[in-house]
């Protein structure tokens, strides 16, 4: 029996952070409806406190899109979580996704706080989010550059506080697949209450390894992948939804895992994202590129 991997689509939130990819509310609602047809499990519809447009999009999607869980991002701050709840409260299935940095480089230079304070804030804000919704996700930002023992401590504490999903992000696209797989295995093996939460991963593509890292994570116990259609996102982009989905579907024999994605809707979703954002797909892009199944001549054509 294959494990079912949840697809957490963040095209509307992290994908929109691609330079020039901003979408208006109507475009976001239209794309969210297509993502529901595609069969994604969770739609991260936006970052409620970041702008009135994001707030309105989350609210509209929560009221109009049936099927997936609708999610808002929120920093580990009370006002962010309150705003996320206001945007989500009418959605039948809702999730608050809160995050706080855990790497020493971020804590020292960005937050200017101690590890102890970061842990305290994370726990308090997960509890605050749980006062609104049962479904809370927590991300220790920059996890791949975080001291591993401290990462385990944070993950264990936020699960105890009520997080149902713990997302391990490779925030700066720094990890190698073997290394990232080992990190996920360590979370699965060393965090005592990990059986009470789903391990998620959020990989950036700065070194072209986001999909490889996500697949390595699945092999080592991850049950959710955060990704975007066409792999769009800030800098070099995010983990490409269609590549992860088709790798699992094509190689069930290897991964022993699959998703609930309706693959016949992948191309339609890809083209809609291109149309809305104006960001073209490179012709040789795997799965959705114009040349993905084309050959000029020679041995492959003959094959």
Topology overview:
Layout: E1 3-4, E2 6-9, H1 25-38, E3 42-47, H2 52-64, E4 69-75, H3 78-88, E5 94-101, H4 104-111, H5 115-130, E6 136-141, H6 148-161, E7 165-170, H7 177-190, E8 198-203, H8 210-219, E9 224-227, H9 241-250, H10 252-255, E10 257-258, H11 266-277, H12 299-302
Parallel strand pairs: 1-10, 2-3, 2-9, 3-4, 4-5, 5-6, 6-7, 7-8, 8-9
Helix pairs in contact: 1-2, 1-11, 2-3, 5-6, 6-7, 7-8, 8-9
Widest beta sheet: strand line-up = 2-3-4-5-6-7-8-9
Please mark out the parts with pLDDT under 50 across 5 or more consecutive residues, or reply none.
none
Quaternary form: single chain
Helix content: 40-55%
Strand content: 15-25%
Largest sheet: 8 strands, parallel, barrel
**Shape label:** globular
Question: Count of helices?
Answer: 12
Count the E strands.
10
Structural class: alpha/beta
Rounded to the nearest angstrom, the radius of gyration is: 19 Å
What's the order of the H and E elements?
A: EEHEHEHEHHEHEHEHEHHEHH
Distance between the termini: 32 Å
Q: How confident is the prediction overall: mean pLDDT?
A: 95
